[in-house]
Every structure is written in C-alpha cells, then in structure tokens.
Amino acid sequence: MPYARDVSGIQLEGDAYEWWGEADGIYSRAHRPSLGAVLVFKPHGAMDVGHLAVVTAIESPREVLVTQSNWLPHRIEQNQPVVDVSRDNNWSLVRVWYEPAHALGITQYPAYGFILPN
Fold first, then answer.
1. To 5 degrees, how large is the angle CA 116–CA 103–CA 73?
2. Contact 111/41 with Cβ under 8 angstroms?
3. Would the N or C end of the chain have less CB density within 10 A of its end CB?
4. Structural domains in the chain?
C-alpha cells in the first residue's frame, strides 16, 4: 500500500480493501474513473487483502490505464489496462491486464470503486 500512497498522494493506512471505508468523510469516492484516483479492489480468492491501482490515463468510459505494485509478485507495472466489465458500467467488476499472456486476464475482480485525490 505504500506505493499507491506515494503515487496518488492519498494518505490512508491499512490493507487495500480497508481504504474504501477509511476514505469515507476524508476523500471523495466515485464509481467512474478520474486521473490520479485509486481503484480499490475487494478481496477475491487468493487476493485476500484486496488491491490498489492508481489511474494514470482514461482510455474510454470502460477502460483505464493504471500503475500498480505487486499485481505480479515483486513488480511495479505502469500503464496497464483495466477494463470495466460490470453490467451497469459502474466499475464494480473489472478485468486486469496480465503481462505474461500479453492480454487481459480471464478473472473478473470485484471492486468498490475509485478514491479521488483531493
């Protein structure tokens, strides 16, 4: 989590999934991407503490590029695609680029939404 904090400037603590609740009343939260916002993933499968990714570009209403650490162990990945696959276009379910396959991964990950920097 220190990487997301450093890149975004959002000063929250705790496991990744805890950021969504911690942001309440401190930072704005949204269900649409914004440059510099942090996408907060819910715990899912082996990703039991969730995940954080910082939006570096908005490609379309349903695709962003993110910078993130440890999506692949011990790596920082920059400008990786994340696609909204939720039925209601609210970023509650996403697919993430998987570099070893040079394609979007097949897993659909649940997400809370975006924490917006002040």
1. 65
2. yes
3. C
4. 2-115 (3.90.1720.10)
pLDDT tens, residue by residue, 46-74:
999 999 999 999 999 999 999 999 999 99
**Cα Rg of the chain (Å, integer):** 13
Which helix or strand (DSSP H or E) is residue 5 part of?
helix 2-8
CA–CA dist 62, 59 (Å, integer)? 8
- Contacts with 42 (C-beta within 8 Å, 6 or more apart), sequence order: 17, 50, 109, 110, 111, 112
CA distance 39 to 82: 10
- The DSSP 8-state label assigned to residue 12 in this structure reads -
pTM: 0.96
Other Cβ atoms closer than 10 A to 10: 23
Q: How many CA atoms lie less than 13 Å away from 42 in the CB half-sphere?
A: 11
For residue 44, what pLDDT is reported?
A: 97
> What three-state secondary structure class fits 35?
coil
Please count the residues of the chain.
118
